[in-house]
Amino acid sequence: MTNKVLTCVGCPAGCRINVEMEGDEIRTITGNTCPVGEQYARQEAVCPMRILTSTVRITGCPYRVLPVTTDREIPLASVDEVMEIIRSTVVKAPVSFEQVLIENVLGTGANVIASKSMPAA
Amino acid sequence: MMKKYSAVVIGGGSAGLAAGITLKENGIEDVLVIEKDDMVGGILNQCIHNGFGLHTFKEQMSGPAYAERFKVRAEEVGLNIKLKTMVTHIHEDRTIEYVNPQEGYVTIQADAIILAVGCYERNRGALAIPGQRPAGVYTAGQAQRYLNIDGYQVGSRVFILGSGDIGLIMARRMMLEGAKVYGVAEIMPYSNGLPRNIKQCLEDYDIPLYLSHTVTNIYGKDRLERIEVSKVDEKLRPIKGTEMYFDVDTLLLSVGLIPENHLGDEAGIAMDPRIKGPSVDENYMCSIEGFFACGNGLHVHDLVDYVTLQAQRAAMGAVHYLKNGKPQEKECRVMPGKGVLYTVPNRIHPHNIDKTVEFFFRINEPVDEAVITVRCGERVLRQVKKKYLVPSVMERMMFTAKQLADIDGDITFEMEAVSHDE
Ligand SMILES: Cc1cc2nc3c(=O)[nH]c(=O)nc-3n(C[C@H](O)[C@H](O)[C@H](O)COP(=O)(O)OP(=O)(O)OC[C@H]3O[C@@H](n4cnc5c(N)ncnc54)[C@H](O)[C@@H]3O)c2cc1C
Ligand code: SF4
User: Is B1-121+256-326 a domain of CATH 3.30.300.20?
Assistant: First the structure.
C-alpha cells in the first residue's frame, strides 16, 4: 500500500487529499471537501490534467489580446505544444463570449474558447 | 443643484458589481456605480487564469468569464455605471467628488455609499532593497496587466520575490509565454500563496521555491541584469555567505496587497489596523453612518466567491440602513485572540443581526491541526477542530442571531495548535 498526498487544484480552498494506492489501483480517497476533489485525485494519480488559460492576439478592436481558455482539461504533458498553437493564433473582433476559436486543439478533444466578449471597434 | 442618489457604489470590480446588482434587486432604484477604468470587472480582467466561481456557479471559470456573468446581470437589472470616472474625494456628509472627461469635476450626494475600491500592491519602495534602480522591476500585478490586458511581453529571464498568489500565477504565465522563471524567493519559512497555486504554478513547471530567502541586491544600469538572493535567519536577517546570483532581466514583486483605503481615511472613517481597511459591523457599515465597505477594499480576499457574497451582504446592510436608519443599541467588539490575525466584522450589534452573521478570519501561522475557540469572556460560544490551516486561506464561521442574542461583552476568536506526539 502506498500513500499519496495531493493538493486539490479544483478551487482556492486547496484541500489536501490523501490517496491510498495498491499498485496502480486506488483504494481510498480522503480529505476532499467536495466531489470535484475526488475526481481530481482519481485523475491526478494516473494522468494529471489541467485547464489551460492564456491570451491570443486580436485585431479589429482597441485591445491587442483576448483572454482564452480550454473548455475542458487537457493533459499537463501537452500544455507546451498547445501553447505553441495558441501563441501563433490571431483572431478578429467581434468575438462573442465562449466562442470557439480553436477547435479540438492538438486532438485533445478540448476547444480553445474566448473568456470574454470583444466587440469590434 | 447637486444630483442626489439613494446609493452610490465606488468601484466596479466584482464587489461593486455584486453590490450594485443587489441594491437594484432589492428595490433601490437610483443606484450609481462609479468605475475609473474603461471596463467593469476590476482585477478579474487581468486574472485570466481559471479557478473563479466554483462555489457560486459550480463550475471553474476564468476571471474575465466571472466578470462577464455579472456584467450581463448588471445590464439586465439596468444598473447605472459610469466608466472612466474617478472618485477623488468623499466626505462625512456623504458628498462624493468625481471627475471624468465628459462632465469634468462633479459633486453628488448619496444616502448610502458602498466602498468597493479593491486593493493595491506593496512595491519595492516599501521594501527598500539595496542596489541600483534599473528598469525591469515590477510588481506582479503590474506585469500581469501588461501581459494579459495590454498584450506586451514583460521579460525573458525572470525571478520573483514573494510567494503571494499573483507572483505564483505570473510564474506559470511567463513560463507559458516562453520566458524562463528561475525561482521564487519567500522571506518567511512558509508560503503566502494558496496551496493550489504552489502546486499548479510552481511544481507543475519545476520552478524552485526558496523559503526563508530574500533578494538582497539588485544590479544593472538601464535594464536589470542580475540579482543577489540570500538565506535569512529566524529574525529574517540575511545570512552572510549564503548569497546566490541569478542573471535575470525581470524581477517581479509579489509581497502583499493592501486595501485601497485612502478615500475612506480622508473622510475620517476608522480603519482596523489589522486589515488596513475600514472597521465594519454586521451590516458592513463603517464608523461613519451610511458608509459601507466590502471586497478587497475592506480586507484582502483570495476567493472571488466570498467577495461576491460579502458585497451582497454589504448591499443588504445598506438597504436595511436606508429603511431603518442606524442601529441604536450598544455594540460589542469582535477581536482576534491568540493565533488569530483579524476578524471581519470586528464589531456587532447583537440585536441588529438579520438571521445570521458570518465572520471571516485568518490565522497567523500554518498548523496541521488546531482548535478554534470563539468566546465571550469565560463563556465558550463555539469550539471546533480544523485541519491544515494556513494564513493564506481565509476561514469563515457562521452564527445565528439567536446564538448571539444574549451576548453582553466582547467576542474573541482564538486558535490553538493541537500537537500530536507520535
Ligand atoms: C492576482 C489575484 C488573483 C486572484 N485569483 C483568484 C482565483 O484564482 N480565484 C478566486 O476565486 N479569486 C481570486 N482572487 C480574488 C478575487 O478575484 C478578488 O479578491 C476580487 O476580484 C476583488 O474584487 P474587488 O471588487 O474587491 O476589487 P477590484 O477587482 O480590485 O475592484 C475595485 C475596483 O474599484 C475601482 N476603483 C478603485 N478606486 C476607485 C476610485 N477612486 N474611483 C473609481 N473607481 C475606483 C478599480 O478601478 C477597480 O475596478 C484573486 C485576486 C488577485 C488580486
Ligand atoms: S476538494 Fe473541493 S473544496 Fe477542496 S479544493 Fe478541491 S474543489 Fe475545492
Answer: no
